[in-house]
Amino acid sequence: QVQLVESGGGLVQPGGSLRLSCAASGSTFRLNVMGWYRQAPGKQRELVALMSSGGPTNYADSVIGRFTISRDNGKNMVYLQMDSLNFEDTAVYYCWAASSWSSGGSWGQGTQVTVSS
Q1: Per-residue pLDDT, 75
Q2: Which pLDDT tens digit goes with each residue over 62-114?
Q3: What are the φ and ψ backbone dihedral angles of 28, each rounded to 5 degrees?
Q4: What radius of gyration, in Å, describes the C-alpha atoms of the chain?
Q5: Host H or E run for residue 81
């Protein structure tokens, strides 16, 4: 069993930055892929960015060039640096981790990111 705990959400103005962190604990040896999804009010949950332990990444088109995912495999941590935030980035951001890109995974409880002037 894997536990994921996110931190770093908050309120930011358009054009600002935030850094999300996710700490994994429990059966972490199987966590090849870690990353982030988000869910805005009234919308389905969507992929933001994923990263494998070996380095390959997968980003949503809407965040390419603005968001950067990184990992510290030794600490079982995954991060999301979010720059040039805009109103459309407002959502609850969920950490996700799994043994492969397409397998069922574990979810964190979510952290709110609000972009507002």
Answers
A1: 93
A2: 999 999 999 999 999 999 999 999 999 999 999 999 998 888 899 999 999 99
A3: -80, -10
A4: 13
A5: strand 77-82
Per-residue model confidence (pLDDT) at position 78: 97
Residue 117 above 90 pLDDT? yes
Cα separation, 18 vs 88, in Å, equals: 14
Are the C-beta atoms of residues 54 and 28 closer than 8 Å to each other? Answer: no
Residue with tokens 């994994």: 24
Is residue 14 a contact partner of residue 66, using CB atoms and an 8 Å limit? no
Q: Exposed, middle or buried, 64 (CB in 10 Å: 0-12/13-18/19+)? A: exposed
Nearest CA to 67 among 90, 41, 51, 49? 49
| Planar angle of CA 109, 112, 116, nearest 5 degrees | 175
- How many helices and strands (H and E) does the chain possess? 0, 11
Query: What span, in angstroms and rounded, lies between the C-alpha atoms of 65 and 6?
Result: 23
Tokens of 90: 């407002």
Residue with tokens 């507002």: 116
